[in-house]
Specification:
The complex is a heterodimer of chains A (187) and B (320). Chain A contains six helices and no strands. With 187 residues, chain A is mainly alpha-helical. Chain A has one domain: LemA-like domain (de novo design (two linked rop proteins), Up-down Bundle), CATH 1.20.1440.20. About 5% of the residues of chain A have low confidence. Chain B is α+β, with helices and mostly antiparallel strands and 320 residues long. Chain B has ten helices and nine strands. In chain B, a hairpin with a 6-residue loop joins strand 3 and strand 4. The chains are: A mainly alpha (187), B alpha+beta (320). The interface between A and B is medium-sized, with 32 and 34 residues.
């Protein structure tokens, strides 16, 4: 009888340790993923002045847009804002950069400049990486949220005061509908 | 495309005369092969009847030697026009499909590239291939060939040791330049565990030995078909954007078989499991068969379409 109790206690303790470790790991994954978003955002901050500089000379009608982008960047970089505000600013910055790239279509000279094309390529890359790191963050948060809500790990999570994290809202990428029927017979 | 309006015209002007001369040789060769077969059969039969069964000399030995010799002769006489067919006809069809496409009948994707892709975990012990194509489609370098890769299983010990081979892949192997730079390794595999075991399968997947981390993507249809392992969660998603996932799903549907992808060194490696022997001639059918050759061309196009299917020519990122 005594042995049975000892075994039961050991099993419970061991699984508690395992659950605890896995919770910590998931929490750290969330933090890591968040940090990687930050890295990408910083890359974008570094890029913005270069882009503004490159297009300024060509663009005559988009002064307002350019000033708006520059100011949003300054706001986003200021330490006084809350994370929620920052998310809103980042989203607007993203939208304005998109409109800037659309406006570029009206300036053939600009589109021919290698310097600009290079910057545009880098921006596309940073945006794509930003989207990827947001998705990675959301995946990590989903795993984490699930594990703090399901039994039995929720017991340990609530004891440690782990809170649900919110997901990033990702602007829906336009999905191309590609439909394909099998065209090959593998027999 | 080429100077010709359509494949029919190309066929008539470029291929027809060669096809007919190959066909002539095919018929002559078939006759020779048939004669060789007949002689072998008669010789074997004679040996079976005439060699007495009660001598010390083992009866099957000369029979086997004769049969083997016959097969070798048949092989030699048939091989040469098959080679000519590939070099003259298939190579030109490749040129018609895409001017930059080079064809080498004997060549294949080297084994180290196959192994490097880390699509398959089993060690590759026997490797062969044929029908190697290489070229540039738009901005994208591409090469592909048929390959057969096998793994050796040793069973038993001592005198009872036996070797058996399991097939790792028989089919197509494609290597194409990817349109983005990346540093880590990501692999997309057909999802067998999740299909069979559901949620429990996911647990199995995360324990997959020798792979990177399991990457859980947000598209449930993609997750149902594939499981993804990567060295870096962010980079895996940088490669596998929602639109690429959609494209990969459509690509798998198009082939309707198991499709494996590996992203490594800014390239994509694709393995397609397939039991069809491509770009071969049929010894007992006329060579000048328009429909058959057109089918070959279609198949070739289907393979090179990967560039479009996965949108590899779009170079809006820093990679040129």
């Amino acid at each position: 009888m005594l042995y049975a109790i000892i075994v039961a206690v050991v099993v419970v303790l061991l699984s508690a340790i395992l659950i605890f470790n896995s919770l910590i790991r998931k929490k750290n994954d969330v933090e890591n993923a968040f940090a990687s978003i930050d890295v990408m955002l910083r890359k974008r901050y570094d890029l913005i002045p270069k882009i503004v500089e490159a297009v300024k000379a060509y663009m005559t009608y988009e002064r307002e847009l350019l000033t708006g982008i520059t100011q949003l960047r300054i706001k986003a970089l200021s330490p006084a804002i809350t994370p929620e505000e920052r998310v809103i600013i980042e989203n607007r910055l993203g939208q304005q950069l998109t409109s800037l790239m659309v406006a570029v279509e009206n300036y053939p000279d600009l589109k021919a400049s290698t310097n600009f094309l290079q910057l545009q390529g880098t921006l596309n890359e940073v945006e794509e990486q930003l989207a990827a790191s947001r998705r990675a963050f959301n995946a990590a948060v989903t795993l984490y949220n699930n594990s703090i809500e399901v039994f039995p790990s929720n017991l340990i999570a609530s004891a440690m005061n782990f809170k649900r994290r919110t997901l990033f809202e990702i602007p829906l990428e336009k999905r191309e509908e590609i439909s394909a029927k099998p065209t090959v017979n593998m027999a | 495309m080429s100077r010709y309006n359509n494949f029919r015209e190309f066929y008539e002007k470029e291929l027809r005369s060669d096809l007919e001369s190959i066909d002539l040789r095919r018929r002559v060769t078939n006759k020779k092969a048939l004669t060789a077969l007949l002689i072998t059969a008669i010789a074997v039969l004679t040996e079976v009847i005439l060699i007495p069964g009660d001598t010390d000399f083992p009866k099957p030995v000369p029979i086997i030697i004769t049969a083997f010799a016959g097969l070798v002769v048949i092989g030699i006489v048939s091989e040469n026009y098959r080679k000519e067919y590939k070099e003259k006809i298939i190579a030109r069809i490749a040129g018609y499909a895409d001017e930059g496409l080079e064809y080498s009948p004997e060549g294949f994707i080297p084994m180290d590239a196959f192994v490097r892709s880390r699509i398959f975990n089993l060690s590759c012990d026997k490797y062969s291939g044929e029908d190697h194509f290489r070229g540039k489609i738009g901005k994208t370098d591409i090469e592909f060939s048929e390959v057969t890769a096998q793994h050796r299983n040793n069973s038993g010990t001592g005198g009872k040791r036996s070797e058996e081979y399991t097939t790792i892949l028989r089919g197509l192997f494609i290597i194409a330049d990817f349109n983005k730079h990346f540093k880590t390794h990501t692999v997309v595999l057909p999802d067998t565990a999740e299909k069979l075991f559901g949620k429990f399968g996911q647990t199995l997947q995360s324990a997959a030995f020798g792979r990177g981390e399991l990457v859980r993507l947000e598209d449930p249809r993609f997750e149902k078909e594939f499981c993804v392992y990567g060295d870096d969660q962010v980079e895996a998603r940088y490669i596998l954007t929602p639109s690429l996932m959609e494209r990969i799903l459509a690509y798998r549907k198009k082939w309707n078989t198991r499709v494996y992808l590996s992203f490594l060194d800014s390239k994509v490696y694709i393995a397609i499991s397939m039991y069809k022997d491509l770009f071969e001639m049929r010894p007992f059918r006329p060579v000048a068969d328009y429909a058959f050759l057109e089918e070959n061309l279609k198949f070739l196009n289907l393979i090179t379409e990967v560039v479009e299917d996965l949108n590899l020519n779009t170079r809006i990122w820093t990679k040129e």
